[in-house]
Amino acid sequence: MTATGTTGTTSTTVPTGTTGTYGQSTEARNLQWLLGNLVEEVPGVRSVAVVSSDGLLLLSSDPEPPAGPGSDGAAGPRGPRGSSADLATIVSGIGSLTVGAARLMEGGGVKQTMVAMEEGSVFVMSISDGSLLGVHATPDCDMSVVAYHMALFVGRAGHVLTPEVRSELREAMESYR
Predict the structure, then answer these.
(1) Global pTM value
(2) Which residues of the chain have pLDDT under 50?
């Protein structure tokens, strides 16, 4: 995997089926890496969630669970545990609502939805097979920058988010609960 400059240009070469650390495939680790970059590199992004077509959280910007016995259970630097689970619920609902609205209005497929609020914004973008990327951002974020980086994520993640990888990510999220 290589990253160049600050333009967001990243190329990934993923050997299919390769298993990496913690028993996760290279594809799953690459998706987590891409999600981490989205959170860390885009100003104003608070949390990010990738949701499957059936509303299940696949990836999250929540910190990993405590390291085991003796850990203090404190949340990491990105926010309290659960914020991405809440975001996933919201993203799934917004996705369902906008797909229904597009059907009624004969508007075709929904590409992106944005909800601007006084204290922040929520962006939802289609990935593939009904999967969705959701971002919760600060009220002063540059919406075009957030949307641009979401589109980059979707472009890179869409072909990697196969049924096998979605299943692996679901299992990993289930084990965190």
Answers:
(1) 0.76
(2) 1-21, 64-81
Q: Could you give the CA distance from residue 3 to residue 5 in angstroms, rounded to a whole number?
A: 7
Structure tokens belonging to residue 124: 């939802």
Instruction: Calculate the average pLDDT of the chain.
Output: 79
Are 137 and 46 in contact by the 8 Å Cβ rule? The answer is: yes
Determine the straight-line distance between the first and last CA of the chain, rounded to whole angstroms. 30
33-71 tens-digit pLDDT: 999 999 999 999 999 999 998 888 999 887 544 344 333
Euclidean distance between CA atoms 106 and 90, whole angstroms:
24
Using alpha carbons, list the distances in angstroms from residue 132 to 6, 16, 55, 69: 25, 22, 9, 35
| Distance set, CA 32 to CA 14, 28, 29, 138 (Å) | 13, 6, 5, 22
pLDDT score for 3: 37
Separation of alpha carbons 21 and 28, rounded Å: 10
CA distance 124 to 114: 6
Residue pair 148/42 in contact (Cβ under 8 Å)? The answer is no
